[in-house]
Amino acid sequence: MLQEKYDPESSGFISTERFRDLLATHGSELDPHKLEVLLALADNNAEGKICYQDFVNLMSNKRSNSFRRAILQGGRQLKDNALREEVGLGLSQRLVRHVAYETLPREVDRKWYFDSYTYCPPPWLILLITVAEVVVFIYCGFKLDRWVLQVSSPSYLKGPLPYHPQLRLQAWRYLSYAFMHTGIEHLSLNMAMQLLVGVPLEMVHGALRITLIYVCGVLAGSLAVSVTDMTAPVVGSSGGVYALVSAHLANVVMCQLKMFRMAMALVCMSVEFGRAVWLRFYPPAFPPCPNPSFVAHLGGVAVGLTMGVVILQNYEQRLQEQSLFWIFLCVYTVFVLCAVFWNVFAYSLLDVRLPPVP
């Protein structure tokens, strides 16, 4: 076996000399980018030995914490922009390379992602959510015979999906409100940010991490409204969308100073948030019930800048290995529990006068 040949003492380590012999013998069989990463790891290893399990993880497309620390040091030996200068790539390879540069901040991570990505599974989550939102909007459009400011229709808030403070005990509404939108302009802005940011993030980080950020943003949005804007209903996927966008901006764009992309994202967020604020203070469609709240946007941003940044920071590292992730998850859990306690007791204790369901 390979381990018996290069690690006869069964120490769990391979000397850098034997490691170089292995690369010299079998390097032609490896992808050039993966070979470059291995050589950088060997060149920068001051201890004179390399963990055999790290080598196995690399060859099986699994990366451990110890390997990550070593390879980040070895990354200094990698050629600058080597992946960007690669020629002769097909359309799908160019797309993967573009996603790598738009989503990941470190060259060594980009190369690793470029080598290992297989389109299996495809980025189905964000596409499925977007299609569901479009289907619900079209259904509401035909049913209400209104495509702009649907919230002004007498039947808009009577459905089973929007969050309404009178119906706050129906727990599914804290999530299902994300599939409802007040009009075609609301849906279009959210779709644009959701697809342009969410699909590349899902291609890199996988559906599980993106689902966690998105759902936490949606839930934080409705709970934030129920605590701070107690008489207002909520609709729209802005909580989840803002969680994804703010996490991505904080983790990648700002550290790379991609000013144009950051400016475009901030413009879209500002326009959508401004529309939500305007609508909140617009004459209500169902007096005395106010129009939908904008506070869900802020809840999404808070999730993105805390949990989202940690989840996206090390795209190949397991979440259970990140201590900061558990800290933010505990904080988020405490927030959810406090918000649930608030919804059960605060409304009656404060004698809040809730508007009737339309």
Note down, in words, how this protein is organized.
The protein has helices at residues 2-6, 16-26, 32-43, 52-59, 65-74, 91-103, 107-116, 124-144, 173-176, 184-228, 238-256, 259-281, 295-313, 323-349, and strands at 13-15, 49-51. With 358 residues, the chain is mostly helical. A two-stranded antiparallel sheet has the order 1-2. It is elongated. The N and C termini lie far apart (73 Å).
Distance between the termini: 73 Å
Q: Which secondary-structure class do the elements indicate?
A: mainly alpha
Rg over C-alpha atoms, rounded to the nearest angstrom: 25 Å
Secondary-structure element order, as H and E? HEHHEHHHHHHHHHHH
Count of alpha and pi helical runs: 14
Q: How many strand units?
A: 2
Shape: elongated
- Helix coverage percent of residues? 55-70%
The profile of the biggest β sheet is: 2 strands, antiparallel
Q: Regions with pLDDT < 50 over 5+ consecutive residues?
A: 72-80
- Within the largest sheet, what's the order of strands? 1-2
What average pLDDT do the residues reach? 81
Q: Roughly what fraction of the amino acids lie in strands?
A: under 5%
List the helices and strands and how they pair.
Layout: H1 2-6, E1 13-15, H2 16-26, H3 32-43, E2 49-51, H4 52-59, H5 65-74, H6 91-103, H7 107-116, H8 124-144, H9 173-176, H10 184-228, H11 238-256, H12 259-281, H13 295-313, H14 323-349
Antiparallel strand pairs: 1-2
Helix pairs in contact: 2-3, 3-5, 6-7, 6-10, 8-10, 10-11, 10-12, 10-13, 10-14, 11-12, 11-13, 13-14
EC number: 3.4.21.105
Domain EF-hand: 5-60
Main location: membrane
